[in-house]
Structure formats: structure tokens, C-alpha cells
Amino acid sequence: MRRLLAPGEQVIVDTRRHPSLLVLPAVVTVAVCGAAAFAAGWLTRGRLDTVLPWIPAGSGPWLALVPALLGAWTVVTYPLRRLVAWTGLRYTLTSRRVLRRQRGFRRSERELPLVMVRDVAVHQTILQSFVHSGSITLTTGQAASLRLDDVPEVRSFRQLVLDAIDELPLDQGFADDGGLPRPGGWAERSEAPPPWEPREY
Description:
Helices cover 36% and strands 21% of the residues. It is an alpha+beta fold. The chain has two domains: 9-17 and 90-188, PH-domain like; 23-85. A four-stranded antiparallel beta sheet has the order 1-2-3-4. A three-stranded antiparallel beta sheet has the order 5-6-7. It is elongated, with a radius of gyration of 26 Å.
């Protein structure tokens, strides 16, 4: 990320989506592995012969491969895929822009300069409110917008976005009377640009 920063740009927050998204994949993994192990053990002991007597004797160990393969396929297609997607998606807030970077099976990258942001909206479901996560929608007042889903500590993230917008040089911000660029720059401020400390949620 450092090599992608412009001169004078600083990272404020670099985070992934909330880890609560991995709870259901983890439960599925444990349940599938347990069920596959039980079914494979049951078949290995020859219990299937009592239920289906027409099956050749001694085929239990070979039939035990069926639940094992089904379990492995289920884990790869759902929990592992969700883990890779969660690991590959990152949200980065810098002193000048917000980035959404996706790596893994699909690669994409979107960014929105803070100077264009006119509204920062937070949306939370009931479950998200319990874990302090939520979605943030950054709009420009035009067609362009950027949505960040399942942001951890969503209200703190929103406040950091607003603080970063407030600390933009005056010649890069928007005035309150129609959206025209403000005159002047850092020379009109009495204080220096804030020394942002990188944060990770």
C-alpha cells in the first residue's frame, strides 16, 4: 500500500470486513467435518451391511470415501471460498481518498477522492449493531458513489472519514454555498496538517 501513496498522503485506517462474517462458515466447517467423520466411521465398521444387505461385504472402507469427498467438496466450495473472499477484500482510508481493493478469485479496485465526497451515510442491521459493524455509502452528489459493506467499528470509521475531509487543504474542499472549491490552501490555516497515525480495525 505504501508504494501506491501519493507524496504527502498518509494511511489513516487499513482494515478488512468484520470477522463476524466468518462465524457461519466456521460453524458449517465444524458440522460438515463432524458429519463426514461419523459417516465414514460408521461405514468403515460395516454397519451398512445391516441396512443394505445387497451391498458386497467388505466394501465399507471404500464407501467411507464418499462422505469424506463430499465433506471436502463442501468445505472448499463454501467456507474456504468465504475465507479467501474475506481475506482478499480491504478497505483503506488515507488522508486523500478511500480505497476498496479486492484480491483473490476476483481482482478489482475502486477509489473515491475525499475531495469529491458530499455525504457519508451509515446503514446497520440489527445484528450488525450488536457487533458495531455496518455499511458506509460515500456519495458525491452525482452518479459516482462508493459502498463499503460490513465495516468494523463503522461509526468510528465514519468519523475518521469526516475528520479527514475536514483536514483537507482548503483549496481542495467544497464550500457550503453550492459546491465550489474553497479559496486558499494550508496557508490560510493556523495549524499544520495532522500527523495521521495508521490504524487497523
